[in-house]
């Protein structure tokens, strides 16, 4: 008897089961099933197939079954109407390590699985074999005396063939599925690192050069309109032929030369694409299928983080802030279009990109439209507005030039919003010697910034000992109780101070007096250690505490490899008048929003967590997706409702509760 159970009317699902995205039935959660469900989502949301034209485990005779069968639209689910077939295998257990990506010849034994199906079922024109990391697309060519299965770079979208696909136009590039884009980025990086033998950091930069080429090509589309000619593309079979690979290189080399001229603040001009023709063709073929400009900012951010996390863990872990935490900080700060925002320890630009995503949604809401549904006019208008906002209002700074470039590239990927990212020492500012100091002093002088969002490097193992820097700070002195509930500065300088302490003072001094506000990630010791009481007193003297959010250790340990308890502290800088009145005892107490996050959506190992009943069953609820399927050569939109597990994450709830708190306080 089948163990499948229809879940359309159920509100829970036993642990160890997943919901089939095609039928809504519950299926046992296996490594292979997880791969299959990811592929199903991509086939629907990227390629435009209708769920009604798909069937899992379709029998083609005897004991043979097709893992995912796709039938001609609206036709009966029969062998005669089976147009495409997918074979899925479980994902290799490689963790975050790079894995060598095989070519078609090296994977020939595995590809026999799909080729047997394609030879036996006459109607099947296209096949796909995947293990979740490797994707091998196959086209069947029926010759007079033989049936030949040949590799192609990708499937054409629903209802089309390789022969009808105009690869030079952007008509059939597609908006990326979140999970598939992340896997694509990882696969490209793995190919460079594993197949080309490059060190991780070199592979990282080679991949980012190509991301830049792709984004620049798309940006020219918006500027040149009718005159635009696409250069970042690969024909269906080009990557498998020597001449085709050379043609791809010629197009990309020309494009990269333009990129280096356009982005002189990022490129020195001597950078080269050091990949072999084979590797370059593979990556271009992987990326060319997507429309990055129209792909969701969050999806691109998650995919970029997949690479950044691999390359910046360990001794650079302090620069890496989990996306859920970043998003919460920005949502609680609620930046406005007229306000400047600065991250003085920006690392790879997580807070800056999240700000762009926040503002992009805000701009779309004002036009009553959504990502993927907006008209071309609205799309261009909203993105031009976003670029103008970033150019005028978004600022970042970091001491590490490697991270500056990574942040600049992240901003470009998010929407060509380069903003202003300076290579300066924020703790030494406005003094210092680094090259970006003059423009930073002009654009973001102390006391001029509306909002600061940051996760500064912290820890006693990286103390600040430079006397030249320490002498700028009140908190770099010894403080003692004044006998009246406060503290006094003794005037004695310390020889060593943890960087997060100095960053607190620097960030506050960077804000506009009276209105400037900030959200900062801090180790719990600052807020709870008895020895840090003078720091808390100083913060209370200089600012109004808006909110405090305690984070669980899982928030950082899974994604950033930092095993430490942290909190988020939100502050508003007081004006000099407020401080004067308060010193005279003229200001009453005020309410502070406080929250504790127990769950952040994943455990210490990074495994996703879902809400459960007291009996341990996972809770599911209906969720709507915009489905864009191709029927008769045109795109038809409809709403697809599927029951899905609910992520066990307190951070979005805290953001909503904070908005309610502010509404109550403001009447």
UniProtKB/TrEMBL annotation:
Gene3D superfamilies: 1.20.1260.30, Vaccinia Virus protein VP39 (3.40.50.150)
GO molecular function: DNA binding; N-methyltransferase activity; site-specific DNA-methyltransferase (adenine-specific) activity
InterPro entries given in the database record: DNA_methylase_A-5, DNA_methylase_N6_adenine_CS, HSDR_N, SAM-dependent_MTases_sf, T1MK-like_N_sf, Type-I_RE_MTase_Subunit
Residue ranges annotated for the DNA methylase adenine-specific domain, each copy included: 313-579
Annotated Type I restriction enzyme R protein N-terminal domain residues: 32-145
Pfam families to which the protein is assigned, alphabetical: HSDR_N_2, N6_Mtase
Metal-binding is among the record's keywords: no
Enzyme Commission number: 2.1.1.72
This protein's UniProt keywords: Methyltransferase, Restriction system, S-adenosyl-L-methionine, Transferase
UniProt catalytic activity: a 2'-deoxyadenosine in DNA + S-adenosyl-L-methionine = an N(6)-methyl-2'-deoxyadenosine in DNA + S-adenosyl-L-homocysteine + H(+)
Domain of life (superkingdom): Bacteria
Top-level EC class as recorded in UniProt: transferase
BP GO terms, sorted: DNA restriction-modification system; methylation
Database matches in NCBIfam families: antiphage_MADS2 (NF047738)
Family affiliation: Belongs to the N(4)/N(6)-methyltransferase family.
Record's protein name: site-specific DNA-methyltransferase (adenine-specific)
Organism from which the protein derives: Achromobacter deleyi
């Amino acid at each position: 008897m089948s163990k499948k159970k229809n879940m359309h009317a159920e509100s829970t699902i036993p642990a160890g089961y997943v919901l089939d995205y095609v039928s809504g039935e519950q299926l046992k959660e296996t490594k292979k099933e997880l791969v299959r469900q990811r592929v199903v989502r991509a086939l629907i949301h990227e390629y435009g197939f209708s769920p009604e034209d798909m069937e899992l485990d379709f029998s083609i005779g005897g004991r043979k079954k097709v893992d995912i069968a796709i039938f001609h639209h609206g036709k009966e689910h029969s062998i005669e109407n089976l147009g495409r077939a997918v074979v899925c295998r479980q994902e290799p257990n490689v963790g975050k390590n790079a894995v060598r990506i095989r070519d078609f010849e090296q994977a020939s034994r595995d590809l026999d699985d799909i080729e047997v199906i394609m030879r036996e079922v006459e109607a099947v024109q296209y096949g796909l074999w995947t293990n979740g990391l490797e994707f091998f697309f196959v086209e069947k060519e029926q010759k007079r005396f033989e049936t030949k299965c040949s590799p192609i770079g990708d499937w054409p979208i629903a209802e089309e063939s390789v022969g009808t696909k105009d690869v030079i136009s952007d008509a059939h590039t597609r908006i990326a599925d979140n999970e598939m884009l992340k896997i694509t980025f990882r696969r490209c990086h793995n190919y460079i690192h594993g197949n080309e033998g490059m060190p991780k950091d070199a592979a990282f930069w080679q991949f980012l050069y190509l991301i830049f080429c792709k984004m620049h090509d798309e940006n020219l589309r918006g500027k040149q309109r009718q005159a635009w000619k696409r250069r970042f593309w690969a024909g269906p079979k080009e990557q498998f032929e020597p001449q085709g690979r050379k043609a791809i290189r010629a197009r990309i080399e020309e494009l990269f030369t333009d990129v280096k001229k356009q982005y002189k603040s990022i490129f020195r001009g001597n950078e080269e694409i050091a990949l072999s023709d084979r590797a370059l063709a593979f990556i271009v073929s992987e990326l060319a299928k997507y429309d990055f400009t129209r792909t969701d900012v969050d999806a691109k951010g998650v995919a970029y983080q997949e690479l950044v996390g691999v390359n910046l863990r360990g001794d650079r872990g302090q620069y890496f802030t989990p996306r859920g935490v970043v998003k919460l900080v920005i949502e609680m700060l609620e930046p406005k279009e007229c306000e400047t925002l600065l991250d003085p320890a920006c690392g790879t630009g997580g807070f800056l990109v999240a700000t762009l995503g926040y503002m992009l949604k805000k701009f779309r809401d004002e036009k009553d439209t959504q990502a993927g549904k907006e008209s071309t006019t609205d799309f261009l208008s909203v993105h031009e507005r976003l670029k103008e906002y970033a150019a005028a209002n978004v600022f970042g700074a970091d001491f590490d030039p490697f991270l500056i470039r990574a942040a600049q590239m992240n901003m470009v990927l998010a929407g060509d919003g380069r903003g202003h990212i300076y290579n300066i020492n924020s703790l030494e500012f406005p003094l210092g010697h680094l090259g970006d100091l003059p423009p930073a002093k002009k654009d973001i002088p102390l006391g001029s910034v509306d909002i600061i969002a940051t996760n500064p490097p912290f820890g006693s193992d990286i103390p600040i000992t430079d006397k030249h820097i320490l002498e700028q700070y009140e908190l770099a002195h010894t403080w003692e109780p004044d006998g009246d509930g406060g503290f006094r500065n003794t005037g004695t300088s310390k020889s060593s101070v943890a960087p997060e302490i100095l960053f607190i003072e620097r960030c506050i001094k960077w804000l506009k007096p009276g209105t400037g506000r900030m959200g900062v990630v801090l180790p719990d010791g600052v807020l709870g250690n008895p020895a840090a009481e003078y720091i808390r007193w100083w913060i209370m003297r200089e600012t109004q505490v808006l909110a405090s959010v305690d984070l669980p250790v899982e928030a950082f340990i899974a994604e950033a490899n930092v095993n430490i308890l942290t909190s988020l502290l939100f502050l508003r800088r007081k004006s000099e008048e407020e401080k004067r009145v308060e010193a005279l005892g003229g200001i009453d107490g005020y309410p502070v929003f406080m929250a504790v996050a127990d769950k952040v959506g994943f455990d210490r190992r990074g495994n996703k967590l879902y809400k459960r009943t007291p009996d341990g069953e996972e809770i599911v609820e209906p969720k709507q997706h915009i489905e864009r399927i191709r029927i008769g050569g045109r795109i038809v939109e409809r709403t697809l409702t599927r029951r899905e597990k609910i992520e066990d994450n307190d951070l979005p709830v805290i953001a909503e509760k904070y908005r309610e708190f502010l509404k109550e306080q403001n009447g």
